[in-house]
What does this fold into?
Amino acid sequence: MKAAIFHEHGPIENLRYEDIPEPDVGSDECLLKVKAVALNGFDPMILRGIPGLKIPLPMVPGGDIVGEIFQVGVEVDNSCWKIGQRVQIMPNQGRSGMMGETRWGGASEYVTCSQEYLIPIPDEVSDIQAACLPVAYGTAHRMMLTRGNIQKDEKILILSAASGVGTCCVQLAKQAGCHVVAVASSDEKLEKLKKIGADHTINSSTQDVVEEVINRYGKPKIWGGGGVDVLVNYTGGDTWAQTFRAVTRQGRILVCGATAGYNPKTDLRYIWSFEFNIIGCNGWDRNDLEKLLELVADGSIEPVVHSVRPLADIRQSMQELSDRKVVGKVILIP
It folds into this structure.
């Protein structure tokens, strides 16, 4: 079968489209014919290599996978899983690892998966829509709703809002009745964010994020008033302590990553003086993905798709992710 695969860490040129053996099917596994696979921001990082994370080589990227059941193992529950059924894969598979990171991903014509990690796809949800959801949208749902408990009329500031996680955060916050302030690095990205529900946008390349928030909502006071109720910051780096100045007393700071640096300078004075609640989110669970499928099926949210390309063109999609030119999700079709 054809697959995208890299045998060594390094530049995008190390990613090849070549023939590899079709996987064997375990007794409790299904063999899926891959219908769509999406890449995420961590895929170029995995290709380059991440210090401290042992990635077995060779590696097939792609954690967001939608497929059609092509073959079932002898111990698979046939009352739940049938040949021809469309399914989504939960890519975070406990101790066995994360697909596309420590387990082979789905950037291939076929992939195997234990029945434990399959989720049926409603008829109302397309293959492309479903492929957008697991990693980015699953994380956003858990961060905003399961952990963050965002509420109607709250003011939400979302950094890096044009990413896969960010575009979902914007939609979830808007659906919850919040006032959404979206931050991105170009006017083109901001225009797209307005179309999916952002009430106010800030260009981080030309504007000071904190100043813009203060101009609109007032300067946060230790005893209350001013600023935003919720800050979504999975950027980290220099933005970490800087954006404390935009958050109201007893505000919530939601964190699911650190794309600009995981060991930033901080300012403990703000944390205790303003009684911040810093809430971490590590991935998602089955409930988050099932809820997202329901939201897409009933039209409450619409996954934002940047591009749909043949799997053979994976290098172009990977390059756009590396260059931060993506708004939403990049989809590949085997």
